[in-house]
């Protein structure tokens, strides 16, 4: 006789195995554990809470349907994050908010704008409270174009390599590098600007 | 001032995306060039600040409510898929039946036509050089008249003939 699974204390991989055998309660536990992270990633990419909620819900439905394909090479939450990222990228492309490569961005991406920004020294985030810093960073991310923000999120938060980002964003590695460079420099400049305003 | 290619190399070095040979060259540059070093430090600082400070966001819905929406959507899609599969199975059953039935019908028609056709049945009556009447089979209830001069062809079909 099989023992009943203790869902709240079971590890993710145990819950995944149970869910793969159509145990919905196990899947519900996985949703409860990781729903905030998946939703947060959608919010950061879409910059719209309603859209993010819809997309994260869709991601969980897709995950249930494809659960048998999950082999456990990465953690379940990494696998889930990949699903939400792909859904967000598809949605951004549909809305034409995400461009692969374009002439308009040529100057920006070949080092025009960002090279004029002075290098930021010293650390503008020193003595800034963590909550405030997080808020500032989020505001700065909101000031970036969709392409720059997406590259930054995929690289800094999801720790994807240039090659992987280029594949997902359907652009060249060179474009990824330029976008990342611009995005980092812009964030540094924005943080320094806020710091200067505060110290006046 | 360092060029854009070098700037990107500094960044790639920071991200661990360079080969060991390239990494050594960039390391040397950042040691000896003040501009390169300053830029490298800025990129490094931004990277570390970002990595540790992503804003925490929580889904503004209760566990039960959120799950109920997901569960309903899963069930709706599974139901839709099941209906689709039933329809596909039904149509494939019809296709499985219709294909051999159609082939059989064509075969039967060919056999009947062949059996009922008497030898030399095809008749062609030439009225003159440019007019002719053709009755393909004696039993069939159609014949045609063709006039090259008038540029016309008329086909009679007798639907009452036994």
Describe this structure as you would to a colleague:
The complex is a heterodimer of chains A (200) and B (162). Chain A has 200 residues and is mainly α. Chain A has nine helices and no strands. Chain A has helices at residues 12-20, 24-46, 49-66, 76-94, 106-109, 130-143, 146-157, 162-169, 173-199. In chain A, helix 1 (12-20) packs across helix 2. The longest helix of chain A is centred in the last third of the chain and has 27 residues, at 173-199. Chain A is globular. In chain B, helix 1 (4-14) crosses helix 2, helix 1 crosses helix 3 and helix 2 (20-32) crosses helix 3. Helix content of chain B is 60%, strand content 14%. Chain B contains four helices and four strands. Chain B starts with a helix and ends in a 5-residue tail after the last strand. Chain B is elongated. The interface between A and B is large, with 49 and 37 residues.
């Amino acid at each position: 006789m099989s023992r009943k699974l203790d869902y709240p204390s079971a590890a993710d991989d145990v819950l995944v195995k149970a869910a793969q055998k159509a145990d919905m309660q196990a899947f519900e536990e996985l949703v409860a554990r990781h729903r905030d992270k998946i939703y947060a990633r959608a919010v950061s990419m879409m910059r719209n809470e309603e859209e993010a909620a819809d997309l994260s819900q869709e991601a969980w439905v897709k995950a249930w349907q494809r659960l048998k394909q999950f082999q456990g090479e990465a953690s379940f939450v990494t696998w889930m994050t990949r699903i939400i990222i792909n859904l967000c990228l598809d949605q951004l492309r549909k809305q034409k908010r995400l461009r692969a490569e374009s002439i308009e961005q040529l100057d920006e991406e070949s080092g025009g704008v960002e090279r004029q920004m002075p290098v930021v020294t010293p650390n503008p985030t020193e003595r800034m409270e963590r909550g405030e810093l997080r808020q500032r960073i989020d505001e700065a991310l909101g000031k970036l174009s969709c392409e720059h923000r997406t590259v930054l999120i995929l690289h800094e938060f999801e720790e994807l390599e240039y090659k992987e980002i280029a594949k997902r964003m359907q652009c060249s590695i060179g474009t990824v590098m330029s976008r990342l460079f611009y995005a980092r420099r812009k964030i540094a400049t924005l943080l320094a600007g806020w710091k200067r305003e505060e110290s006046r | 001032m360092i060029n854009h290619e070098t700037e990107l190399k500094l960044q790639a070095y920071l991200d661990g995306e360079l080969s060991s040979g390239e990494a050594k060259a960039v390391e040397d540059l950042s040691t000896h060039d003040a501009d390169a070093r300053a830029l490298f430090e800025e990129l490094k600082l931004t990277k570390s600040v970002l990595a540790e400070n992503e804003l925490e966001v929580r889904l503004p819905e209760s566990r039960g409510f959120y799950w109920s929406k997901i569960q309903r959507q899963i069930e709706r899609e599974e139901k839709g898929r099941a209906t689709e599969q039933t329809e596909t199975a039904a149509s494939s059953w019809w296709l499985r039946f219709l294909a051999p039935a159609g082939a059989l019908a064509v075969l039967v028609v060919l056999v009947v036509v062949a059996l009922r056709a008497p030898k030399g049945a095809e008749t062609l009556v030439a009225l003159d050089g440019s007019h002719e009447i053709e009755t393909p089979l004696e039993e069939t209830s159609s014949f045609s008249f063709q006039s090259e001069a008038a540029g016309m062809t008329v086909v009679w079909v007798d639907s009452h003939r036994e």
